[in-house]
Design brief:
Shape: globular
CATH topology of the largest domain: Nucleotidyltransferase, domain 5
Low-confidence stretches: none
Strand order of the largest sheet: 3-2-1-4-5
CATH class of the largest domain: Alpha Beta
Largest sheet: 5 strands, mixed
Number of domains: 3
Number of strands: 7
Order of helices and strands: EEEHHHEHEHHHHEEHHH
Distance between the termini: 59 Å
CATH superfamily of the largest domain: Ribonuclease H-like superfamily/Ribonuclease H
Helix content: 40-55%
Strand content: 5-15%
Mean pLDDT: 90
Length: 265
């Protein structure tokens, strides 16, 4: 490590598995930290955590951790003091760590009443480096699939020509891709089992619609309809899509979306 990355103090590589992606309301169910010292020595900290709330099936599908697996594990507050000591004087690294892991970790420490600050720490986000160095644009796709430079980038005619060539190359490379247009259309859709609507404003949590944006992100739609109906009325008056407004208006009437395969009440 010393030959690759010059360390002046330890760096802690952090990864979390959680109940969801809402920083303010979701909880950690597993944490792993790899602490690397300037001399190259490594120490690991791995622990599953009882989040104190049910783990949505949608989250379990991602990381394989359900309520039973953490039922007898400690709460975050029981580990917070030891964890903050483990991270003491460390810079922080991770994949998407700046936008997600650090934010939810700070929320957990705050709920536990344990001070944890990133001030003065270097934050190394591997995802940002990846995206900076390996762009995922049409020119990059041309190099990857066609082994050719996209000389006419941002010329509309050249863009469509190269795109057709890339699609053909993808079909040749990936034998499991459908060859029928309708089936390929279905394969191109984003996962439908997470989001309630096409705009991804609402997502399924415990098989109920929850906000995926805004100040109520992570909260169930039915809770917001009961406790803050003015917010839903505000949404009806704003520039949301007809689909979103329909969901919100029905929620104000006490009717909520049902997961795919279940009949609406």
């Amino acid at each position: 490590m010393a030959d690759v990355l010059r360390l002046r103090r330890p760096i802690a590589i952090v990864d979390l598995e959680t109940t969801g992606v809402a920083v303010e309301t979701d909880r950690i169910v597993e944490i792993a930290v790899l602490r690397i010292s300037p001399d190259g020595s490594k120490v690991r900290y791995v622990k599953r955590i009882n989040p104190g709330i049910p783990i949505p099936p949608e989250a379990t599908q991602v990381h394989g951790i359900g309520d039973e697996e953490v039922r007898n594990e400690p709460r975050f507050s029981e580990l917070a003091d030891k964890l903050v000591q483990f991270l003491d004087d460390c810079d922080i690294g991770g994949f998407n760590v700046a936008a997600f892991d650090l934010r939810i970790l700070q929320s957990e420490f705050a709920r536990a009443g344990v001070e944890f600050s990133v001030e003065g720490r270097a934050i190394i986000d591997v995802q940002r480096i990846y995206h900076m160095r390996e762009p995922r644009d049409l020119s990059a796709a041309a190099r990857f699939y066609l082994d050719a430079e996209h000389e006419g980038a941002h010329s509309a005619l050249e863009d469509v020509r190269i795109t057709w060539g890339i699609l053909q190359a993808q079909l040749e490379r990936y034998a499991d891709l459908p060859r029928e247009v309708a089936a390929l259309h279905d394969a191109c859709k984003p996962p439908a089992d997470r989001y309630v609507d096409a705009e991804r404003r609402f997502e399924w949590r415990h098989r109920k619609a929850a906000f995926a944006f805004g100040k109520h992100r992570g909260r169930l739609l039915e809770e917001v309809a009961e406790e803050d109906p003015e917010y839903l009325e505000w949404m009806c008056a704003k520039d949301f899509s007809p689909e979103i407004k329909h969901i919100v208006r029905k929620a104000l009437e006490g009717v909520f979306p049902q997961p795919p395969g279940e009949d609406e009440e």
